[in-house]
């Protein structure tokens, strides 16, 4: 849908997956298709339903140029008196939050702080026999 030339280059943060924040809690995925579909083909929309993800969504476009057009036109767009925040999805920020080494270090720090055992406990039960009387 978007006009593009073969020599045009996009910034490295631009991709087909958009992260949308500040959505009205009662918005439906069909309404999001209506809003974002004006800029090109949409492959998928994931609407946040949990308490901590409500008001957010991921929109995946078929074409990267259509995603760029949507960001350019819908950032700050008013939907039910809420101004949308439309960002490019950034994988490195997500993986940075889920860094297992940092989590291990946090756990070790807590163990040291509270003098918790660092070795796992092993529980063994031996059953030799039983007698019925």
UniProtKB/TrEMBL annotation:
Q: What is its main location?
A: nucleus
Provide the protein name.
Answer: Pre-mRNA branch site p14-like protein-like
Q: Name one GO molecular function term.
A: mRNA binding
| CDD domains (alphabetical) | RRM_SF3B14 (cd12241)
Where is it located?
Answer: Nucleus
Give Gene Ontology CC terms: cytoplasm; nucleus
Q: Per the database entry, which stretches of residues form a coiled coil?
A: none
- Cited SMART domains: RRM
Tell me which InterPro entries the record gives.
Nucleotide-bd_a/b_plait_sf (IPR012677), RBD_domain_sf (IPR035979), RRM_dom (IPR000504), RRT5_SRSF_SR (IPR050374), SF3B6_RRM (IPR034150)
Tell me where in this chain the RRM domain is found.
16-91
For this UniProt record, give its keywords in alphabetical order, as a comma-separated list: mRNA processing, mRNA splicing, Nucleus, RNA-binding
Gene3D superfamilies reported for this sequence: 3.30.70.330
Among the record's GO biological process terms, what is one? mRNA processing
Instruction: Tell whether ATP-binding is among the UniProt keywords.
Output: no
Q: Name one Pfam family in it.
A: RRM_1
Q: Which organism is it from?
A: Planoprotostelium fungivorum
């Amino acid at each position: 849908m978007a006009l593009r030339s073969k020599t045009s280059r996009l910034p490295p943060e631009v991709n087909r997956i958009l992260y949308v924040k500040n959505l009205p809690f009662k918005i439906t995925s069909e309404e999001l298709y209506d809003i974002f579909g004006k800029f090109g083909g949409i492959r998928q929309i994931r609407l946040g339903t949990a308490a901590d993800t409500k008001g957010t969504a991921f929109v995946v476009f078929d074409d990267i140029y259509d995603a760029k057009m949507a960001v350019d036109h819908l950032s700050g767009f008013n939907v039910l008196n809420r101004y949308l925040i439309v960002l490019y999805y950034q994988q490195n920020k997500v993986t940075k939050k889920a860094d297992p080494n940092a989590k291990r270090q946090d756990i070790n720090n807590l163990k040291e702080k509270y003098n918790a055992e660092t070795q796992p406990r092993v529980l063994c039960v031996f059953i030799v026999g039983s007698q019925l009387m």
